[in-house]
Specification:
five-stranded antiparallel beta sheet, two-stranded antiparallel ribbon, single chain, 118 residues, mainly beta, OB fold (Dihydrolipoamide Acetyltransferase, E2P), globular
Length: 118
């Protein structure tokens, strides 16, 4: 196993509070046909549903197993065009930055969609 990465430089609490991280339920996982890596996630945040693109197509043999799972998402990122589609947030996962197969960052028990982290 590789050594943990060095800790990044310090940020303020105000920096962290700028991020809006919420729990959402992945209601659908769809292939983005124009991309080798992207999947289209339809995510329920309680008061709305949005599309979030995630580059995890090659990481899971059956990404449909994510349907119905809750996870953490950054919801206040500027929309980003990828492979001709627009993503309206970012899935938080664990492991990608360290070169291991990522897993979802999930609440330990079910919570209402849209609940904020932090």
């Amino acid at each position: 196993m590789a050594a943990p990465a060095p800790v990044k430089s310090s940020v303020t609490v105000a920096d962290v509070e700028k991020l809006d991280v919420r729990v959402g339920t992945i209601v659908a996982v769809e292939d983005v046909e124009t991309s080798k890596k992207l999947l289209r996630l339809r995510v329920d945040f309680g008061d709305h549903t949005r599309t979030i693109l995630s580059g995890m197509k090659l990481e899971r043999p059956d990404p449909k197993v994510l349907e119905g799972r809750q996870a953490l998402f950054v919801v206040n990122l500027e929309p980003k065009k990828m492979a001709g589609e627009t993503s309206h947030g970012m899935l938080f996962d664990i492991g990608f930055a360290d070169g291991i197969t990522p897993v979802l960052a999930v609440p330990e028990a079910p919570v209402p969609n849209g609940v904020r982290a932090g």
